[in-house]
Amino acid sequence: MKQLSVLVFMCFIIDGVAQGIPAKDVQLKTAVLAAPEGLRDKAMVYGYSDKGEFIVLRTGTNEMVCLADDPNQAGVNVSCYHKDLDPFMARGRELKKEGKSFKEIFDTRESEAKSGKLAMPKQPATLFVFSAKPEEFNASTGEVKGGSLRYVIYIPYATAESTGLPLKPEAPGMPWIMDPGTHRAHIMINPPAKE
Fold first, then answer.
1. For residues 44 and 65, what is the distance between their CA atoms, to the nearest angstrom?
2. β-bridge mates for residue 151, sequence order
3. CA distance 120 to 132
4. Is 7 part of a structural domain of the chain?
5. CA distance 14 to 106
6. Are 54 and 67 in contact, with CB atoms under 8 Å apart?
7. Which residue, of 23, 28, 43, 92, has the fewest CB within 10 Å?
8. What is the pLDDT of residues 66-109, one digit of tens each?
């Protein structure tokens, strides 16, 4: 009887994990929402196996890499970025998995980028982020009603002086530079919220 109880419990756990992970087609559909339309069909997509492992869902043939929504977070938050950012992004995911804090991740990547161990883009490279509230997202179909995009353009070691950008937005939707002078320097563009 004890063995049967353990078996039933294990099936419940496995089934629970599988139920929490959207189907592959839903992950693909939502992951590419962050990419410009013309780049969606050929983008590489990372997502989750039915066991919750982070895997490649689809190999790509263009310059875009997309990340499916994390099923452990409410709502939807997907991103797509230029393939030249993949080493930077992958290293961040690796360090986060190790339990490192935001500052530890920043400092490690800064050091590794300066030493040449971590390859950073030689030219500006874009990240697109699409997010929607839980009530705007149907996880079983991948349908999203609403949501918003924001844009990030990585330009390692750029400064306010080298770009002419302010350190904070002075008007809705105005571009500004974040983390200037570091490996993670980037232009932030947060379009005004739709009313």
1. 5
2. 128, 189
3. 29
4. no
5. 35
6. no
7. 23
8. 999 998 888 899 999 999 999 999 999 999 999 999 999 999 99
Quick check: is 13 in a domain? no
The reported pTM is 0.84
Q: Are 66 and 46 in contact (CB under 8 A)?
A: yes
- Alpha-carbon distance of 113 to 181, in angstroms, equals 13
Instruction: Dig out the tokens for 52 from the structure.
Output: 């919750």
Domain count, the chain: 1
CA distance 125 to 183: 12
Residue 15 forms part of a structural domain: no
Sign of the Cα pseudo-torsion (16, 143, 32, 117, in order): negative
Range of the domain at 120: 22-189
Q: Residue holding tokens 């869902």?
A: 57
